[in-house]
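Researcher: Please predict.
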Amino acid sequence: MNAMNFLKSLVFCFFLTTLTTFYSQENQKPNILFISVDDLKPSIGSFGDEFAVTPNIDELSKDATVFLNNQNQLAICAASRVSFLTGLRPDKTKVWDLKTKMRDVNPEVLTLPEHFKNNGYQTIGVGKIYDPRAVDGGRDRRSWSVPFVTQNQLTFSDGYSFPSGGFYQGKENRAVRAKLRQEAIDKGVNNLNKYESDRFKPPYENADVPDGAYMDGAIANRAVELLDQMDTTKPFFLAVGFLRPHLPFNAPTKYWNLYKEEEVQLAEFQTKSKNPVDIAYKGGWEINTYKAPGIEYIENDEGLLILPDDIQRKLIHGYYAATSYIDAQIGKVIAKLKEKGLDKNTIIVLWGDHGFHLGDHSMWTKHTNFEQSTRSPLLIKDPRIKKTVSVNSPTEFIDVFPTLCDLAELEIPEVLDGISLRSQIMGEQTTSKIFAVSQYPRHGNIMGYSFRTKRHRYTVWVKNKKSTEPIYIEDIFAEELYDYDNDPLETDNIINYPEQQRIKTTFQTLAARFFNTQIVNEPEPVNNKVTKQYIKAAPNNKWANERSKVISRYVAAEMQMNKNQAKFLQETLYDKYARNNELTSSKGLSNDEIEAIYKETFSMISQQLLSKFTKKQFERISELEREKMNELRK
C-alpha cells in the first residue's frame, strides 16, 4: 500500500470511528451526570450572587435551566437526600433526622439511580450522594451497578495522606490533632477521632496545598478517571457528590485569595423578626462542634448565637472560598466530559442538598424553615435544548426524579410526589405549582410545614401530627407569614396583621388542601365479627365509566387529591354507578325496590371509601359528588 492509499485508509477509519461513536451517542438514551454539593446555598454568580466567584457553574448555566426558587424538603443532610433520591416527601420516607436508615422504615422504596439501573443504565457513584447515616455501608447497594466509591477508596495528591479527621491538611492543624491522638492512645481511649475533634476541630482552614490534597479534589480526580474508563456502549448515570462547602470551610489558599476579607459583607439582619415564633429559630447547634482557640459560641437570652464580627467575617470568607474550590472541581469533571465527547448526549444536574445560614437572624448552618435554609440551587442542562431559561416559579427537589425520567423517556413511577419539569427545560418559565413545601421538626413533637410561593412564605407549626394524618385547627401550634416583595430579609412576621387576613386565609386553605392530599390511612385491625362488603362491578359499563370519570375528576380537583387517591375514587365510583345500573335498569322495579338497592350500594361503597379516606374527607366527597350529579342532571 503506497503512502497516499494508507493516508486515505487512515482518514476513512477515523471518519468511520467518529461516525459510529456519534451515531451510537445520538441514538441511545441520554447519559446523566448528577452532581451534588453539600450545604451549597445559591452563592453562585448565575443564581444572582455578585460576590461569588464561580466561573464553571456560571458557564454551565448557559443553555441550561436555572431554577431560582427551588426549595428542599427538609433542611438536614440525610432527610433531604433521601427525599430527593426517592421523589417522596419526608413524611412518606419517614426519615426526618440523621440516624434513621432509609430501608429500615421503607424496605422496598424505589430510588432514582435504582430506577435508572432497572432500565438499562450503568449507575456509578463517588463522594457523598446519600448521607452515609441513612443507608447501608454500600451507600444503598441496590442503587448502584458497581460498588459505590467511598472516601476510603480515594487517592490524594503526591505527598499527602488521608486528611486528618477527614478534613485537615494544614501542617499546624495536623500537628495539633496528632498530638491529641497520641494523648488519646496513651489514655486507652477507644474513639480516637472523637477525642481529637472534641478538643480541636477548627471551623475553617486556609492551607497552601494542591486541590487533590483535600477530599473534594480527590473526588473530582476519581470522577475524571471514571469518565475516562466509562463503557459508552450503554447509557450511564454518574453521581458525583462533593463535601464542601459543608463545615469546616477548608480550601486551598488560592481560593481564599479570590476574595478580600475586608469586602466580606455580614448579614444585614441579625435578630428575630417582629412577632417571632420562637421555635422557628435555632442557636449554635452544629457550628458549636467546631472548636479552635479564640472561638467561643455564646447564646443570648433569646437563644441566638452571638459571634464577634471578625469571626463572622472569617466564616463567611471561608464559605465562599470553599464554594469556589468546589466550582473548580466541577469544572474539571465537565472538562473531561467534553474531552471525551460525552457532553453532546449527557444531561447534567447540579444541586445543593439545602441552603445555609451565614449569620442572618444570628443563625448558622441549616435546620430551619427560613429562606436561607430551604432555598437550594438546582440547575439542569439538557444538551438537546439550546437556550437559557430562568424559572422563578416554585419548584422542589422531589420534582427531579420525574423530570429525569421524562427527559430519558423512562416510565415515571406513580408513587412519586413531584412533577416533571420537562416543560420548563423546554423553555416555559412558570410551573403548575402554586407553592413548594419544606418542613422541619422541633422539640420532637412539633413539625413546621412551610409553603413558599413566588412571593410569600407561610409556615404552620403542628403539634403531635404529621402531614400523613388528619390535621385540625386544634393541632396548630403557631403560624408565620413573610412577604418577600416587601421584606426579603424576613424581619416581620405579618400573620396577624388585619390587612393580611385575606392572604392568611388563602394560605390556610392551601395548606388544608395540601394536608388532605397527604393523608395515608394505616390498615385497620381485622375484626372477626364484622366482614366488610366490597363491590367489584363488571368492567364494561360505558355509562358508569364515563360518569365516574367526570365526577371523580371534579372531586379530586376540589380536594387536591394525589394520583393514588384520585384513581381509587374513580374505581370506587365506577363500582357504585355500575352496580346500581346493572341491578335497576330495565328491571321493572318499584321505586321502593330501587331505593333499597341504592341504600345497599351506598352502605357498601361507604365502607370502601372509609378504608382510604377519613370521615371528614368522606363527607366532603359525598357533598361534592351530589353537587356534580345535580349539575349533570340539569
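Model: The first helix runs from residue 3 to 27.
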